[in-house]
Design a protein that fits this description.
This protein is an alpha/beta fold. It contains 13 helices and 13 strands. The longest helix has 25 residues.
Length: about 350
């Protein structure tokens, strides 16, 4: 038995908007069939951004139809996000959006059902359904997304874990360095400060030597990007290697706490920084073994890793890359792993 149900997903970022139509065939999701990309007009305010979203969504609806085969709209947004109200709570990359009722505003603008979740939760959902969660055939996973910040999503027994107010999964703001740098969240030494692309840049900028190497000029040295630092590390630059060792240490501490707390079978690391997996993963696993006795008891052998043993604790790189967020947004209205907190008629 087949179905031509489709949904529309929105991935709201601080720089870009991505709106996609996604078709489901039978019991297996079939993939994105149409996409629109727009800049996010943050400086014009949330009403303008919603108008851009609504215009793109209506265009896709006109093209693909509003009938019974249309399942609804899913939207992923940077957190913190209060659910079930769908109200944004001071998202760091979206200034001026604090207190904005995004779900209600979009639902009214398009006249259709809207489901809303944090972007990290939706990346975890997509990875669970279509990526490493499918590969390892697990009922639960925990995902860290290493981008501008560090996002965190948890899938527990096939459902997104939203918590009491929709704010579960903020492991990026768990302290990993007790006397560490000040974090914009108000704490110190947060994982986000050491394992995000921004953190890599900050740590690299502390070395004038690295800046000179990157810019070939002692006077006009530009701050290196995370990719610059990774390239230098691959060339054997000692300081760049030290930066990624610090990334691995921070992740090992952070994931160790998650393993001890959750005891799930799969922990997934995604986002742009995960492209440097080979640079930080060995140190991460070493730190994880030291920090988590649960991991030491359940770590897979090489053979158990190859066989994807379900009774072991696997820590792996994400499979879906930059598509995870939009895929999760598209999956949500189709009823995959919805928690129920983000629904709107």
């Amino acid at each position: 038995m087949t179905s031509d149900r489709y949904s529309i997903g929105v991935d709201l970022g601080g720089t870009n908007l991505r709106i996609s139509a996604y078709r489901e065939v039978g019991e297996s999701p079939d993939g994105i069939i149409d996409s629109i990309a727009l800049p996010t007009r943050v400086s014009d305010g949330p009403v303008a951004v919603v108008a851009d979203m609504a215009g793109a969504i209506k265009g896709l609806l006109d093209k693909h139809g509003r009938g019974s085969h249309f399942a609804g709209v899913g939207i992923g947004t940077p957190g913190p996000l209060e659910l079930p109200e769908g109200v944004m709570r001071n998202p760091p990359n979206l200034p001026g959006f604090d207190g904005f009722p995004l779900r209600e505003a979009l639902a009214q603008a398009i006249g259709e059902a809207v489901v809303i979740e944090s972007d990290a939760n939706l990346a975890a959902l997509a990875e669970f359904r279509l990526g490493s969660g499918k590969t390892y055939a697990v009922p639960s996973l925990c995902m860290l997304t290493l981008g501008t910040g560090v996002g965190n999503g948890i899938i527990l027994d096939g459902k997104i874990l939203d918590g009491n107010n929709g704010m579960a999964g903020e492991a990026g703001h768990n302290t990993v360095i007790a006397d560490g740098e000040d974090c914009p969240c108000g704490s110190k030494g947060c994982l986000e400060l050491y394992a995000s692309a921004t953190g890599v840049q900050r740590m690299a900028a502390a070395s004038r030597t690295l800046q000179r190497q990157q810019a070939h000029s002692p006077e006009d040295a530009a701050a290196p990007t995370a990719l610059d630092v990774a390239n230098l590390a691959l060339e054997g630059d000692e300081f760049a290697l030290t930066v990624f060792a610090r990334v691995g240490t921070a992740l090992g501490i952070g994931i160790g706490a998650l393993v001890n707390t959750l005891n799930l079978p799969l922990y997934v690391v995604g986002g742009g920084v995960s492209a440097a997996w080979d640079l930080f993963a060995p140190r991460m696993i070493e730190e994880l073994r030291m920090r988590s006795y649960v991991y030491r008891l359940t770590a897979p052998s090489a053979e158990e890793s190859r066989q994807r043993s379900p009774r072991k604790t696997h820590v792996v790189r994400a499979e879906l890359g930059s598509d995870a967020g939009i895929l999760g947004a598209c999956l949500l209205p189709l009823g995959f792993a919805a928690s129920g907190l983000g629904l709107s008629g």
